[in-house]
């Protein structure tokens, strides 16, 4: 088993490679990050320099600082801010005016797709393009400031939801969050030291190799590992085995990073 001093030496020897350094450091430490945000963006200030009250209220609701968010699984029936009639997710069913985002709306519902890890990404992309076509701020340039602001918020929400569901890692993280399970920023405690050393060895091979063929071979192995993890996570989520899904997801994050590094090296070698 690696001693603490030897692990520190590994970290020092790989200090110029952030990816390898992170893996080495992860063997005996974890990282925690904090995220901050602005409630009122420059795009919402307009000429007056002040946020429209309704837009600011929606923005604050959409980006609550509460770290223990509760996610709803279906949209709540609300009234249109303009005419008072019942509204849908994006527009009023009566006057057709754009609406503010619904608090903590389920991303799967937003795209009208099944809440499953093995979702149809082509259908997801098609729905995304349709929504952005109707919600894009350019369509509301002649509307009121309130409608322009809601358009920006809805468009930003759709972008965020799409980027979350499009990739397996972020999709799995989100699905666990829907069940009240949160994967901490530092996931190192979820994987064994032996696994971390295995990942470090693969990183070292990528760092040292000058052969495009060898990089491609490593990439193939990484993709096969990711495919297997995808199947295991899907099975675990379908069974409701959230702890297993969480542990598998921690491993998937490392392999996803390896996949990105393989892509970068193949691009650089062109």
Automatic annotation (TrEMBL):
SMART domains given in the database record: DnaJ
Any one of the GO BP annotations: protein complex oligomerization
Keywords: Chaperone, Cytoplasm, Mitochondrion
Keyword Mitochondrion tagged: yes
GO annotation, cellular component aspect: mitochondrion
Location of this chain's protein in the cell: Cytoplasm; Mitochondrion
Residue ranges of every copy of the J domain listed in the record: 106-178
Annotated GO MF terms: ATPase activator activity; protein-folding chaperone binding
InterPro entries in the cross-refs: DnaJ_domain, HscB, HscB_C_sf, HscB_oligo_C, J_dom_sf
Coiled coil: none
Family per similarity comment: Belongs to the HscB family.
Name of the protein described by the UniProt record: J domain-containing protein
Record organism: Electrophorus electricus
């Amino acid at each position: 088993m690696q001693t603490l001093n030897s692990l520190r030496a590994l970290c020092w020897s790989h200090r110029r490679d952030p990816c390898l350094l992170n893996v080495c450091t992860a063997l005996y430490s974890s990282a925690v990050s904090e995220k901050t945000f602005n409630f009122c963006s420059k795009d919402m200030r307009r000429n007056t320099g002040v946020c429209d009250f309704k837009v600011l209220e929606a923005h604050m609701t959409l980006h609550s600082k509460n770290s223990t968010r509760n996610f709803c699984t279906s949209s709540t029936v609300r009234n249109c801010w303009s005419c008072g009639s019942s509204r849908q997710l994006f527009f009023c069913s009566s006057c057709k005016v754009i609406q503010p985002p619904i608090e903590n709306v389920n991303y799967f519902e937003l795209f009208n797709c099944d809440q499953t890890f093995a979702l149809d990404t082509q259908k997801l992309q098609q729905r995304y393009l349709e929504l952005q076509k109707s919600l894009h701020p350019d369509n509301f340039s002649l509307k009121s400031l309130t409608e322009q602001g809601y358009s920006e918020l809805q468009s930003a929400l759709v972008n965020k939801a799409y980027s979350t569901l499009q990739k397996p890692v972020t999709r799995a993280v989100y699905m666990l969050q829907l069940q009240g399970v949160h994967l901490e920023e530092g996931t190192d405690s979820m994987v064994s030291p032996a696994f971390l050393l295995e990942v470090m060895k693969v990183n070292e091979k990528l760092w040292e190799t000058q052969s495009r063929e060898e990089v491609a071979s490593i990439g193939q192995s990484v993709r096969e590992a990711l495919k297997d993890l995808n199947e295991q996570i899907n099975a675990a989520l379908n069974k409701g085995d959230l702890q297993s899904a969480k542990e598998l997801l921690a491993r998937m994050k490392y392999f996803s990073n390896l996949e990105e590094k393989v892509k970068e090296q193949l691009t650089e070698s062109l």
